[in-house]
Amino acid sequence: MTARADFKADLLGAIPNLRAFALSLSGASDRADDLVQETLVKAWHKQASFQPGTNIKAWLFTILRNEFYSQMRKKGREVSDAEGTLTEAMAIHPDQMGKLDLADMQRALQMLPDDQREAIILIGASGMSYEEAAKVCGCATGTVKSRVSRARARLAAILDVDDAAEYGPDAVATHVMAKTA
Amino acid sequence: MGWAMQKPKDEQARPLNEMAVRQIGKKLRESFDEVVNEPVPDRFAALLDELEKSEGEQDKDR
Question: What is the ipTM for the molecules in this complex?
């Protein structure tokens, strides 16, 4: 296989992860796939700057992330809620069974400040290492760590899972089933 | 009414219990993996074919 064919195969293979990253960042599926498309075009033309054998996922995530923020800047859209002012008004409450819908998580992510959102997505959702995530975000590893812990705390507040009692129904059901079994 | 509203405002100041951290981590991974496991729309393979083709044509011109 030629280097270009290898590169193309790597890009193809990375698409599922790119789509998930784009959706988590943007919160909108139509926008997410446009972001992936832009990322693939950019990546194709930047092929020379990719070193074969290095982490292509981190390289592509960096391109997608930069594309996302540059689009946001162009649109002049302020989506971050740095002060957390919206957070309380928009708190998400799991249904009475204590179950958290996956769509709730997407909405909750959109309530985080940009820097916390990207950190928790990279570490908590995509399974990147702190070192890889720091490269993608262009910041220090320690910065990623503190953003992740702030993001977790805020998600817990938004999703109302910051109290052991919130596990009530699930935890009790498991317990009861274990007992009767 | 009333009791549920009296949760401390400064929730971020409280350390998270381990179960909350685990629950959030699990939900994050599930919501991410849900998209990862979706079939990839055809438009992306078509786009890469297109990029490859246009580059091939440029090569021929050289």
Answer: 0.76
What are the pLDDT digits (tens) for B48-57? 999 999 887 7
Give the tens place of pLDDT for each residue, A106-116.
889 999 999 99
The whole-angstrom separation of Cα A66 and Cα A137 is 9
- Of A13, A44, A79, which residue constitutes the final position of a domain? A79
Q: Structure tokens of A126?
A: 């995509």
Shared-domain flag, residues A48 and A5: yes
Residues of A in contact with B20 (CB under 8 A): 152, 156, 161-164
The alpha helices in A76-140, defined as continuous H runs, are 85-89, 102-110, 114-120, 130-137
- Lowest-confidence segment of A39-53, A72-86, B3-17, B39-53 by average pLDDT: B3-17
Non-local (6+) Cβ contacts of A33 within 8 A are A19, A22, B41, B43
Beta carbons of B38 and A23 less than 8 Å apart: no
Domain that holds residue A48: 1-79
